[in-house]
Amino acid sequence: MADRSRTGIDVLDRKLGGGLPAGSMVTLSASPRSQAELFLYELTKTRGTLWLSLNREETAVTDSIQNTPTETGDPTVRHISGEAPLDNASKLISALPETSNLIVDPLDVLESQEPPSRFRSFMNDLQNHIFNTNSLAILHCLEGRSVPPLRDTTEHFADVIFHLETDISGDEIDNRLAIPKFRGGRAPIDTIKLELTEEVSVDTSRDIA
Q1: Between helices 85-93 and 116-132, what is the axis angle to 10°?
Q2: What is the residue range of 106's domain?
Q3: CA-CA 20 to 30 A from 140: which of 40, 127, 175, 202?
Q4: pLDDT averaged per 10 residues in sequence order, the chain, 209 residues
């Protein structure tokens, strides 16, 4: 079994037999209206983290992390802007040290770059670097009103897929996490009902399954 890297989210680490295989690329797909960012915040506490923000400015991301009630680390946040985001992201990723976390938030901006072959080349280079450094790459993929055409390519590259489904019914918000793909072992066959408030935890309050 590959060495496991803790996510820092206890419910996931237990479910995954101690964490994620070192050297894995992970996608976290969720609606933009969800609290998926809590996952990203908690992941920063386990090891040194480089956070590449494709939408929000560095100060906005840093303030959000510092003000969240849950325990976090102190990630290095960089805003990727300009007309060549793939090139700019690649330069920063190439310097990622051993056993680190890389968070790309959101990946959608890079998935939309033309031509598609440039994105595939970026993903191959990313996969090699993450594997060679025993790091983890967490790619935040928005499942909003439009999804980039290359999302299938992203999910094919991914070693692990987390899919967060958020449903609003009446006065209740229901969050369930599915892990349909897990190259490092056996994917859990059941979804995990979560409470996403101040931290990521199992929601047992209304679970009658």
Answers
A1: 10
A2: 4-202
A3: 202
A4: 82 88 97 91 95 97 94 96 94 96 98 96 98 97 95 98 91 90 85 79 53
Q: Residue 152 is inside which H or E element, if any?
A: helix 151-157
Distance of CA 183 to the CA centre of its chain: 16
Sign of the dihedral defined by the CA atoms of residues 172, 65, 48, 95, in that order: positive
Q: In the Cβ-directed half-sphere of 145, how many Cα atoms lie within 13 Å? A: 0
Residue 209 lies in a domain: no
Does 165 fall in a domain?
yes
Determine the pLDDT at residue 182: 94
Specify the pTM. 0.92
- Say which CATH number the domain at 115 has: 3.40.50.300
Q: Flag whether 49 is in a domain.
A: yes
| Domain count within the chain | 1
